[in-house]
Amino acid sequence: MVQNGVIQEVGPTRRLENLAIARHAVEINAAGRLVMPGFVDSHTHLAFPLGNRATSGSSGNVRTVSSPSRARLAARARAQVEAMARHGTTTVEVKTGCGPDENAETKLLRVLRTLKNDPIDLIPTFLFHLPGDGLCGAHDAAAEWVFRELLPKIRRGHLARFADLAWNANPTWHGRFSRYLQAARQLGFLCKIHADQVSTADAIRMAIEHLVVSIDHLEHASPGEVAMLAQSSTIATLLPATSFHAGTEFAPARELIDAGAAVALASNFNPRHTPALSMQTVVALACRHMRMTPEEAICAATINGAHALGRARSAGSLEIGKSADLLVLSVPDYHDMVHHFGSNLVHLTMKRGEIIYEEGEVAHLPVEQLRLCW
Ligand SMILES: [Zn+2]
């Protein structure tokens, strides 16, 4: 039962039908279908400036993010957000990460701000990674500039909630990484770490020391690193679509869960490395390739994702008082989501009590009704 965008009641149909609040309610018939919370995709790069994979390299990103207009970037990002909504995502995190170039970073963050909460919640993250190849001195100056100027500016403008760090295993950088996390926390950011490298022990240690909310990727985490993470409150955010697409190793989800770590699942969507934005696909891959059960994978893709974004009070589950972010899927049982790998099963997406997407009919359309989008 939903009122003013908030879940008021949850329970068996017969009980709800007898409540006073039900008298004037509009009924949505979901007979034979699955109703579940909207997906919370807690790790994406959807506002990637490039339209295809032809251009590459992180130094290239800075150039290209500066070139398209803000309106064009916003239109592209909006199209990706709408595609996500059609596939059942109702809350999404979006990272920057085009290098310490103020124009590129703040431009992307301002674009994200224009998209905020319409049609789904969008949570922006500033992603710091080392500048491209260059002299150490240039690195130092760039890092100092990020700590002293860019981070405070982003914070003052309320342009990002999270500060993420692209880890580098080279120990000469670890002192600076620690300072970055410290500076970000002092400014009031919540922190994350991208740990996709072979040795993640130092990254996990730093994540625990700085109370980061999530450490993401972890494809190469060793048993000792799994044990270390399981002792902490840091969430392990795993990205199986990335491993699937690259044909590389999957993160040790089973070991992490069995050791007691909190695991979230996310798409890592970006047009170049992981062009899959469907969290249904992510759940199916997690079950097939990381030995997660459907129950674990769905929790990881909803409520644990909400925890990884600091949104668990309002999103991630169908509970009284939470935002009415829910899906009706064209399967009778949640186990079928894993079986129907690769199809979009979303019949309806609801965000804050409003239907933002409903599956359409296949029909012959007269050519005059066709609209050009771009
Ligand atoms: Zn990523």
Structure report:
The chain folds into two domains: about 1-35 and about 325-360, no CATH class; about 35-310, Alpha-Beta Barrel (TIM Barrel), CATH 3.20.20. The chain is about 40% helix and about 15% strand. It contains 14 helices and 14 strands. It has helices spanning about 15, 60-65, 70-85, 100-115, 135-155, 175-185, 200-210, 225-230, 240-245, 255-260, 280-290, 295-300, 305-310, 335-340, and strands at about 1-5, 5, 35, 40, 90-95, 120-130, 160-165, 190-195, 215, 235-240, 265, 325-330, 345-350, 355-360. The protein is globular, with a radius of gyration of 21 Å. Residues about 50-65 have low confidence and may be disordered. The structure holds zinc ion. Zinc ion binds near residues 43, 45, 194 and 268. The site of zinc ion (ZN) has 4 residues, from loops.
